[in-house]
Amino acid sequence: MIMIAPILAAQINMVESVLGFIAVVVLTFLLITWVMSFLRFQDILGLLNKEDTAESINSDSILQLQLAKFVSASGREQVPFSLLKCSIPSGVSIGELETVWKPAIRESDWIMPLDEQVMVLLLRCDREDVEALWDRLCGEFSGMSALVWQVGATSFPEDGLSGRALLAGVDLALKTSLKEGSLQWAEEVESEDEMEPDPEVNEESDGLAGGDGKLLDPLTGVLRGSVLSTYMHRQLNEYRLKREPVALFCVAVDNMEQIRSFHGEEAHDQLLAEISKELQSSLRSADMIGRYEEHGFLVLVGCKSSQAEGVAQRVCGAIQKKVCMFEGKRLRTTTTLGIGVHPEHGRNLHELYVKAQQVVDHCRENDIRGYAYYDEVLHREQSQRLKQSIKATGK
Questions:
Q1: Residue 5 lies in a domain
Q2: Are residues 67 and 111 in the same domain?
């Protein structure tokens, strides 16, 4: 037994050495693989900045990589962009088109021939500015009517939050343009398979559930304007995919500047916080609420057009009855609420917002309190105070 013990100990040490050696080999292999993958990825990205890319990487791959860069940058900086895919009309060569258009776009934009018949553009601008930019590009060929140009367009984040969704949308829009002509926008093209998981948004959602102050407005306790657009776009897309009805409410709180002037900043803030609590208690937990501008809220409500009136009536009534006590004074106010219903009043968040905001502006200019649906005849000539997307609004 005395002789067997050292032999067993030696065998155990040998097994541990072998296992340690195998572990080192595996870790070294994994490290080398990761380094090679990273270097290859950097090489591919470097190709995007070189003119001679056709031999190393095809145009579809270049487009996907460039689109991924735009999506990533726009998600961080909250800057929208649009993807355009243009079919080259007869009488114009792809080389001529690239030569004329490249100097006409900004350095932050991007243009590339996809093949001999299709040109692709990435333009950093709001959705509503795309048609003006497109008209300017078409104007570079003054001898051709704008009707001969066939182009599909899709916009981030309105029409998709992933490169795959944007590409699917622009392809469908181009097919429509080939039949009907002119610039066509993507409509409801996303499917369950096309929706890619967004880790950044999921992390933010976890933070929201835990009361992360970076996502919530500290005064009102609802979503900040800086993240409101991202969440509402995603929520609206979910309603669209499920074919469920949804409405957007623009809730403007009245007389807040007067309250600030007469009673001070502290009274103003306390009343606005109390109104936010009343608004939240009047809605369901599934309804999304965010602060926009200084004295307003945006609410995305899952309901039919016929049900939106009842929700708006409940909200306006609750806020009108709310009394806020401040240093022995009874403070109260009212709201003006504009309703935009999908898809009757808009196909995306920006369109719904513009219509609902036009209702609010019309009501205030005519000293009307309460709520109203968007009406094409009544509100279409209403001047738009805000020409930009809700991405640029809020606290």
A1: no
A2: yes
